[in-house]
Amino acid sequence: MPSKVFQYEGDQWEAIPLGTGVGVATGYVPEPDQWSVTFRCLSDLAKGDVKGYVRDSDPARLDDDELRRALARALKRRKP
Question: pTM for this structure?
Fold first, then answer.
């Protein structure tokens, strides 16, 4: 699956799919409703990689606004 490049707060980021789905349920095995991605800041590699989740296994099918929201959630979780 391809990655997708998008802009967030003046930086260029890449959403890289990891191919891992997550689903939560009780009593049965659910279909994944979130997919793991690595967000990488291409314009400042010192920011490091950030693990996040999106609603599609292929980030290229998501619009930039959805990727920005997912990255914002991931960055918020990462802060101490």
Answer: 0.85
Query: Are the C-beta atoms of 18 and 54 separated by less than 8 Å?
Result: no
Q: Domain limits of the chain?
A: 4-21+32-78
DSSP the chain: ---EEEEETTEEEEEEEEEEEE---SSS-PPP-EEEEEEEESS-GGG-EEEEEESSS-GGGS-HHHHHHHHHHHHHHH--
Q: Over pLDDT 70: what percentage of the chain?
A: 94
